[in-house]
Structures are given as structure tokens and as C-alpha cells.
Design brief:
single chain; alpha+beta; nine-stranded mixed sheet; 4 helices; about 20% helix
Length: about 325
């Protein structure tokens, strides 16, 4: 006699008990003049042109559901996530819709540097059909390259953005190994991934509580309970290979953006049982798991990291997650 267990996992937009109210008002950038940093890498007219070009590319690629049309204006995690969303829409017969994105700016945070890569971050208006603004990051890798959309996150409800410098002046670029922060930008991602994997981590106290970690914990517990008569559900989180970018804030800290990968693995361990995953994580393949089934999510993140010596905690400002791959291994079947 076989026991049938069905489990499902959301594929895209994070359910964070989003209310109709969005983040707190975004602070206006201060007009700070200093001789210690170079000028802003783009002016307002140039930024408007960059954002218009990114929008035009997104609109065309979304209409055709064709990731090739993203080339030249969308890169990094944003490219991987958008391409995955097109596949999700295809395998769900159109039931899945891509994340609404706009580039209309509320506030721009512009790097001040003479070197490359160059970075611009923009807090956007709220897209139609959404209730939270986005923080998008655009990167120019060399003098001849376009500025490309590198990542987006949804700002979490109630998020208070840190104050930044007027974009006409520009904000300092923070190196990936900078020791001017409580943790280097690379360490922030590594430690956050470690805390998700192990809530007893020594670094847990460095991070303020956030809804993403709560969501992951609740989700894992629910899936594990649902699958216990047939097998197990485990998660593993690691820093992605996309890297990280950071711009300084007025308090000596930084806005750090990057990405992690979260694997959720369903394994059938009980002989004679049937373990099924939802169609939303089967990507058009079989829903019955003979051995193991791993759903891989790319999760973009934005943090405010205080300066070294601060008593404040690292705060998650926003996030987005998209199912980007599934893998199956039937060789571990218990039968």
C-alpha cells in the first residue's frame, strides 16, 4: 500500500504579508560637496536616457518572452531571473506572469568614481499591479559598455532607506573587501547565507530580524511536515557567483546588493510511498519524485550595512526570488 504525499512551493513573488502601505518615504539625498571624491558618473539627462533604454528593452523582451532580446541592457542576476520567468510562464501555460518592473525614479544613488565598473542605484515608483517600489541596480562594466540592469529587489514593507548623497555630487563606491563596514560586502552575503542555514550561527546577532528569513523558516517547516510520511525536505543556501556592488551612505555605511542561491530538496526516503511536488516547481516535468527533486532559487538582496564601530545591525532592505532551475536524481530511490 502506497502513501501519497503532495507538497508545493511558491515559485516567485515572496509572500511577506504585504499590506497596502509601502515603505516609509524615501529620504531626499543630501547635497554634500567634498573634494575627496570624484564627480558623479552620470548626470540627470544621461540617467534618464539609460533608464528609458532599459525600459524599452524590458518591454520588447517581455512581449516576446525572449531572453536574447535582453542582451546589452539586462545582465547578472536580473538576466538570469528574467530568463527563468519566461520559462515559468511557458511551462505554466501563461498562468505565471513576470514580475512587474519600472524604471521611473523616486531617488537615484549615483557612484562618484573615475574607475569601472560604475554603479547607479534607483528607488523606483510602484509598478502597476504591485504595492511596493523596487530598488534597481545598474552597472557599466567598462567605458564602451552600456549601463545594464544588474538586479532588482522589492523593498520590504516599512523599509526606511538610508540617507544618501545628492546624485549630482555622487556617492562613494565601496570595495567588496572594504573594512570600513561592520562586515565587508562579500562577508555580508556569506554570513547572511550562513545564518539562514544555521540560525544559531555566531553571526546571527549582526543582522536585524527580517521577513525573508522568517518566511524561509516557516516554509521549510510546513513542507517538512507535509512530506514526513514519504520523505524529507531540506534547504541549503550559498552565495551566488554574480558578485556584489555597494554604494556609500551618509552615515559611513553602505547599500550592498548581491544574490544568494537557495536549494530546496525533496527526497523520498520511505519505501512504498509516493512523494509529489506541485506543478509550480516541476517546470513542466514529472511531479512524482522517485528519488530527489531540487528546486533552485536565485534570491537577490539589498542591505544597509553600518560603518565599523556602529552599534546598529545590518538591515535587509529588499529582496526578490525566482525559481531558476530544477534537478532530479532518481538513483537515490529507497525502493
Amino acid at each position: 500500500m502506497r502513501t501519497t504525499v503532495r507538497v508545493a512551493l511558491a515559485t516567485a513573488a515572496i509572500s511577506l504579508s504585504l499590506s497596502a502601505c509601502g515603505p516609509d518615504p524615501v529620504p531626499e539625498p543630501l547635497d554634500v560637496t567634498t573634494n575627496e571624491v570624484p564627480g558623479a558618473v552620470v548626470d540627470q539627462e544621461q540617467l534618464d536616457g539609460i533608464l528609458a533604454a532599459v525600459t524599452e528593452t524590458l518591454v520588447a523582451a517581455d512581449a516576446a518572452a525572449d531572453a536574447e532580446q535582453l542582451s546589452g541592457r539586462v545582465t547578472g542576476p536580473a538576466r538570469e531571473m528574467r530568463q527563468a520567468e519566461y520559462e515559468l510562464a511557458r511551462t505554466s501555460d501563461g498562468e505565471y506572469t513576470v514580475t512587474p518592473l519600472v524604471t521611473d525614479a523616486q531617488v537615484a544613488i549615483v557612484a562618484a568614481t573615475t574607475e569601472w565598473p560604475r554603479v547607479v542605484q534607483v528607488v523606483t515608483t510602484i509598478p502597476e499591479g504591485a504595492n511596493l517600489p523596487r530598488l534597481i541596480t545598474l552597472v557599466q562594466t567598462d567605458p564602451r559598455a552600456n549601463y545594464e540592469l544588474w538586479s532588482w529587489v522589492r523593498l520590504l514593507p516599512g523599509t526606511e532607506m538610508p540617507a544618501t548623497v545628492n546624485p549630482a555630487t555622487g556617492s562613494p563606491v565601496v570595495p567588496v573587501d572594504s573594512e570600513a563596514l561592520l562586515a565587508t560586502p562579500q562577508q555580508v552575503l556569506e554570513r547572511y547565507a550562513e545564518v539562514i542555514n544555521d540560525e544559531e550561527s555566531e553571526h546571527a546577532a549582526s543582522f536585524a530580524d527580517d521577513e525573508l528569513r522568517d518566511l524561509f523558516a516557516r516554509e521549510l517547516a510546513s513542507l517538512s511536515d507535509g512530506a514526513e510520511e514519504a520523505g524529507t525536505v531540506e534547504q541549503a543556501v550559498a552565495v551566488s557567483e554574480h558578485g556584489t556592488y555597494s554604494l556609500g551612505t551618509n552615515d559611513g555605511g553602505a547599500i550592498v546588493v548581491g544574490a544568494i542561491e537557495r536549494d530546496v530538496t525533496f527526497t523520498r526516503t520511505i519505501e512504498g510511498s509516493t512523494l509529489q511536488v506541485g506543478e509550480n516547481i516541476a517546470l513542466g516535468g514529472a511531479t512524482e519524485v522517485e528519488g530527489s527533486h531540487t528546486a533552485t532559487y536565485l534570491v537577490t538582496l539589498a542591505f544597509h550595512v553600518p560603518a565599523t564601530g556602529s552599534d546598529a545591525q545590518i538591515r535587509l532592505l529588499g529582496t526578490e526570488r525566482i525559481l531558476v532551475a530544477v534537478t532530479r536524481d532518481d538513483s537515490v530511490s529507497p525502493d
